[in-house]
Known about the structure:
The protein is of the alpha/beta class and 210 residues long. It has one domain: P-loop containing nucleotide triphosphate hydrolases (Rossmann fold), CATH 3.40.50. It is built from 8 helices and 5 strands, in the order βαβααβααβααβα. It has a 5-stranded parallel β-sheet, sandwiched between helices. The chain is globular, with a radius of gyration of 16 Å. Bound molecules: thymidine-5'-diphosphate (TYD). Residues 12, 16-17, 39-40, 68, 94, 98-99, 102-103, 150 line the site of thymidine-5'-diphosphate.
Amino acid sequence: MRGFFVSVEGGEGSGKTTVCQHLGEWLKERGYPVIVSSEPGSTAIGESIRQLLLMERVRDPKTEALLFLAARAEHVDQVLRPHLLDGGIVICDRFTDSTLAYQGFGLGLAIGELERFNDWVTAGLKPDLTILLDIDPELGLKRSQRETVFERRDLSFHQRVRAGYLWLAKREPHRFRIVTASGALEQVLQETRRVVEDALILRGITVVSG
Length: 210
Ligand code: TYD
């Protein structure tokens, strides 16, 4: 596949959405064919699944995982793969690592099984680069100000999610870059731009700075 796929991961209130929008605009201004997409959502089915997950309390973690995975299958097939096959850049707000961190480390489902399901629904599509916005969940939850099913889970859940992400990053150091997200926004944006720029250069793609 000729395109370049960046996923952005992190806990609640880590600023992923702002970072994704910013990276998208930055690359677009420089003439790159870039799309910014997010999970769960970004397709009609995915958006319905997202509403369902945010409104209803799912009892069995397996049901929750399967709903996220179903949204992902549709997203990969309808949005991500076609854009990457065209040679475009994708900035994706959450991807496979969210399922491992939240339903695996957070809710206790087996990582190996979730990985098999991830491979199945993505047909092996993996990010070239994953930016992990790392933040202490106490601070993240204070920043987030939202009250969905997910934010309402207790602090220890969010601490397991954070520890899970850090474990995943350590396991795959070539794919992951960790950016500390507790500092000033401008600093976080600058650091993430640098990380993306470095990764693109490694791929032989030069970002004209300005
Ligand atoms: P969303 O409103 O998109 O928020 P955020 O800005 O935090 O991404 O809500 C998505 C929620 O779904 C978020 O709390 C993380 C959770 N999630 C999972 O638990 N597993 C997954 O695989 C994905 C993609 C998201």
